């Protein structure tokens, strides 16, 4: 039997749908999904703010680079 491949986004979706239910034990769900409670609550906050689109991976690139070389010097 081959390994089941599950996308990270589908796991996040399943987690937030289960955690959004009335009376859901979020810490037990975090243990079940193998994530820390901090990550679980972060996923829930992103889901509440942006819906399912909020569960997509985000860029880890900083929004601002204060030590970046100015464009005039680069050219």
UniProtKB/TrEMBL annotation:
<dbReference type="Pfam" id="PF13518">
    <property type="entry name" value="HTH_28"/>
</dbReference>
<dbReference type="InterPro" id="IPR009057">
    <property type="entry name" value="Homeodomain-like_sf"/>
</dbReference>
<protein>
    <submittedName>
        <fullName>Helix-turn-helix domain-containing protein</fullName>
    </submittedName>
</protein>
<dbReference type="InterPro" id="IPR055247">
    <property type="entry name" value="InsJ-like_HTH"/>
</dbReference>
<dbReference type="InterPro" id="IPR036388">
    <property type="entry name" value="WH-like_DNA-bd_sf"/>
</dbReference>
<feature type="domain" description="Insertion element IS150 protein InsJ-like helix-turn-helix">
    <location>
        <begin position="11"/>
        <end position="62"/>
    </location>
</feature>
């Amino acid at each position: 039997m081959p390994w089941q491949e599950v996308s990270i986004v589908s796991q996040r979706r399943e987690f937030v749908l289960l955690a959004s239910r009335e009376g859901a034990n979020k810490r037990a769900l975090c243990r079940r999904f193998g994530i820390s409670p901090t990550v679980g609550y972060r996923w829930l906050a992103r889901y509440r703010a942006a819906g399912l689109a909020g569960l997509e991976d985000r860029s880890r690139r900083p929004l601002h680079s204060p030590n970046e070389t100015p464009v005039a010097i680069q050219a």
